[in-house]
Queue: 2 jobs
Job 1
Amino acid sequence: MPFTSYSGPASNFPPKHTWKHFEEIFNINKPEMLQTGDSANDVGRIWNAVNEAAKKHGVEERIIFCIIMQESTGNVGVGTTTNQDHHGTAGLMQCMESLGFPGQHNLTQPQITSMVMAGTEHYKGNLKQEGDKDTADCIYKALRLYNSGSINEGNLSDGKGATNSYVSDIANRLQGKTR
C-alpha cells in the first residue's frame, strides 16, 4: 500500500486507533531489515533493544521501531550522516548521542541496545518538551522535533531544513505501510 501524504497540524495526521500493533509492524518490516545485510540475530536483537528501551524510557515500542525504520531501515551497520546543523548522527536511530557501527553486521546485543537507548532517550526529551503525553498529537510533534529540532505546529510537514515528509512517513509506518 503506498504512503499517504499528511501535512498541517497534528490533528490532520492519523489517530492512534489506526496504528498497527508493534509485533505486526515489526513483522511487516523484517524482510526490509534483512535486505540491508542484517542477520536474523541482528533483527532479533533490534526487537530486544526496542522492548528494553521502551520499558526504560516509557516510550511506545512502535514509535521507537518506526523511527528506526525511518532513519536506518533497521540496518545495524548504517553509516554516519551529518544533519542540517553539520553534527554527526549515527546508529539505528541516527542520533548525535549514539555510537555507530558503519558497515558492520552481526553486532552484539549491547551494541544494538546502546544505539536504540541513545535514540529513544533523545526522542523522550522531545516528547517531554511537548507535554510527555501518550497522545498522537504529542507524539507527532515530538517526531517533528526529533527530525528537525524545531516545529511549525501549523504544519508538521515543514521540516525547517530537515526531511519535510518525516512525520508523514512515520505516520504511514505506524499504520503498517512500507516503502
Job 2
Amino acid sequence: MAFTIRPARPEDTPALFDVRTSVRENHQGVEELAALGITPASISAMIAAVPCAWVAVAYDRVVGFTMIDMDQGTLFAAFVRPECEGQGIGRALIARAETALFLRHASIWLETGRDSRAAAVYRHLGWGDETDLGGGNIRLTKARPA
C-alpha cells in the first residue's frame, strides 16, 4: 500500500477520531475518550498550537496517525486502521514522531500495555528499559541514536 506521511492539520481531527475508534486493541469510544479530556476541540487546539501530530494518508484517506507531547518528551498516540496494519504505516509514523522528539530530548518515553501488540512493536523498534507501572502497563524509553 502506498502512503504518505504529513503533518496533521486541525481539519484532520474527525479522521483521527475515526482511526482511533476503529482499532481493536486499546479500543476506546468517543465517550470514553471525552471522559479523559480527549475531545475533537482539545485535539484540534493541540494540533493548531504546535506541531505535534502526523497522519498517514493512502487513497486520499487518513489511515493512521501519531501524536507527541514535545514538552514531556513522550509519544502518546500511534494508531493505524486495522485493515491497513502490516504495511509499514505504524513504523513510519513512529519514526516521524521519534525524529521530532529527539530534536529536544536525549531520551523519550511512552506508556502501553505490557502484553499488547503495541508493546511488541515498540520493543522491535528499539524501545526498552521497561518500567512496570502496575495494572498491566509499562513505560518504555528510547535513547537518541549516537
